[in-house]
Write a structure and sequence with these properties.
Keywords: Cell membrane, Membrane, Transmembrane, Transmembrane helix, Transport. With 280 residues, this protein is mainly alpha-helical. It has helices at residues 8-34, 53-58, 67-95, 103-111, 118-132, 141-163, 168-175, 180-208, 224-234, 239-279.
């Protein structure tokens, strides 16, 4: 078989993609390497020894910054936002399958926060809490601010998923005597489980690294993005690179969990399908 001759356009696009990958992952790799400097290492090359000293220092009490506390707050906030985003998006997807009065207005109102700049939403929520005499905090005002970012994406994804969903599965379940709740629990949710996992992980990552909507809503305790920003102006040791390596590792862990979840769901379906075939 004679291969097609690749023209200059192919190599131009390949070179552009290579530069894009280098630009995207080059700084991350640099931070990863520099985070393993020795105790007397600096912020630039050449490296002065190799150790995990700065990772240990990261979890110790420091004069500037609270990495452990900010990481814990961001993780808790991200999980809470993820759960609410999945539940609200799934419920809205079920509700919007049938047209009702005011549905178009509610839909555009729900996704309007994607158009408004994030910093203005954060400022507005912070001012509202101040006018009401409430204290802004990462578990209240920041939680609401993050939902204005994650919920519209969750809604759009679930609307697209339900648009392709075959409702004959539900009709078959009802014909067999299933109640509405049993139909949702044993038919709809298992079929849409990969999409629900995707919405959940997407919501978590959006909340986990959100900076602008946390700026005026997190109160006196920083979330991780705010802590990283503060450390860039105060910390002059490779502990900052260790922090970047750890946060990048968490992001890749989320991706790995998504892949494992999708694989588990696919194999579970295949196993159930083969069991059903044998029973027939």
């Amino acid at each position: 078989m004679i291969g097609r001759r690749r023209g200059p356009g192919y190599w131009l696009l390949a070179g552009f993609f290579g530069l894009f990958v280098l630009f995207l992952y080059g700084p991350t790799l640099t931070i990863l390497v520099l985070s393993f400097q020795g105790p007397s290492g600096g912020l630039t090359f050449p490296m002065n020894g190799v150790s995990v000293h700065w990772f240990k220092n990261l979890f110790e009490k420091q004069m500037v910054g609270d990495f452990a506390g900010s990481l814990q707050r961001s993780m808790i906030l991200g999980v809470a936002v993820m759960l609410v985003t999945v539940a609200a998006s799934f419920s809205a997807g079920l509700a919007f399958r049938s047209r009702f009065k005011g549905s178009a207005f509610i839909f555009y109102l729900a996704i309007a926060s994607l158009i408004v700049p994030s910093i203005l939403i954060s400022l507005g929520i912070g001012l509202l809490y101040r006018v009401l005499g409430w204290d802004a905090a990462w578990y209240s005002s920041a939680f609401g601010a993050h939902l204005t970012w994650t919920l519209p994406f969750g809604l759009l994804i679930m609307f697209a998923v339900f648009n392709r969903f075959d409702r004959r599965y539900e009709e078959a379940a009802r014909d067999l005597g299933a109640t509405s709740w049993q139909t949702i629990r044993f038919v709809v949710i298992p079929i849409l489980l990969p999409s629900l996992i995707g919405v959940g992980l997407f919501g978590f990552t959006l909340s986990y690294d959100e900076f602008a909507r946390s700026l005026y809503t997190s109160g006196t305790f920083n979330t991780l993005p705010l802590e990283i920003y503060g450390m860039t102006t105060n910390v002059t040791t490779p502990v900052l690179y260790a922090l970047g390596t750890v946060t990048t590792g968490v992001s890749f862990l989320v991706i790995a969990l998504a892949l494992v979840s999708f694989t588990w769901v696919r194999r579970r379906r295949q196993r159930h399908g083969s069991d059903a075939g044998k029973a027939a």
